[in-house]
Amino acid sequence: xxxxxxxxxxxxxxxxxxxxxxxxxxxxxxxxxxxxxxxxxxxxxxxxxxxxxxxxxxxxxxxxxxxxxxxxxxxxxxxxxxxxxxxxxxxxxxxxxxxxxxxxxxxxxxxxxxxxxxxxxxxxxxxxxxxxxxxxxxxxxxxxxxxxxxxxxxxxxxxxxxxxxxxxxxxxxxxxxxxxxxxxxxxxxxxxxxxxxxxxxxxxxxxxxxxxxxxxxxxxxxxxxxxxxxxxxxxxxxxxxxxxxxxxxxxxxxxxxxxxxxxxxxxxxxxxxxxxxxxxxxxxxxxxxxxxxxxx
Length: 296
Prior knowledge:
nine-stranded mixed sheet, alpha/beta, 296 residues, 2 domains
């Protein structure tokens, strides 16, 4: 196990991943633009860094868990980015949901700096990240896997190796996000219809979660609706972004995605209605004439 590991981005997933690495004996360095979040992790026994470059100078492996490609660009190539300080032969593990073609190009760009790259999007939610039980969809060169294999196993219960170069991991994650977004939108529509028809929402939830119509997203996200708690674990705007990526990938090859298009419009409507930073289950708020459960 590599001793010095860096985690950049301490959101719902990154914080859990950093703690999983610490539990497995790693000396974990962290960086987040919200310095107070990094300081909390330092108080638990980690090391807070003032910049991505400072973290890169101290670590042989960097795990990036930022929101999108633009933030990854900044983490790597910004004024205080990793590339300015990272040692040749180090490994950059990219866990964001991005355009697969961008990920493919990034592997070549980093190779010019002597940096190994692993395309490694993640799924499972904050709770599974915290317990080391999430899923990683990875692809990259054998040398990158050889360097970070034990670290991946420390962070995830399922590590899928999908190819020997970047891109395959991001393609599978895009397809996962297609299903996740459509399932959340469908779950919200079903719950909204139940509310409109006067069905007790708790009873509806109980029946559906024990019937053929259930999905992981219905069970997970409609629990948020029942509690009236829209604290963002994954925000509405995440699916504005991710379903947008899904549609961009399909559009490039003129492949029709009617359900994805509809779900994307639903999240767009929720975002522009003022729910952009609420939990993605807040997409249910676009339906008129329903009374949603209130937070106790």
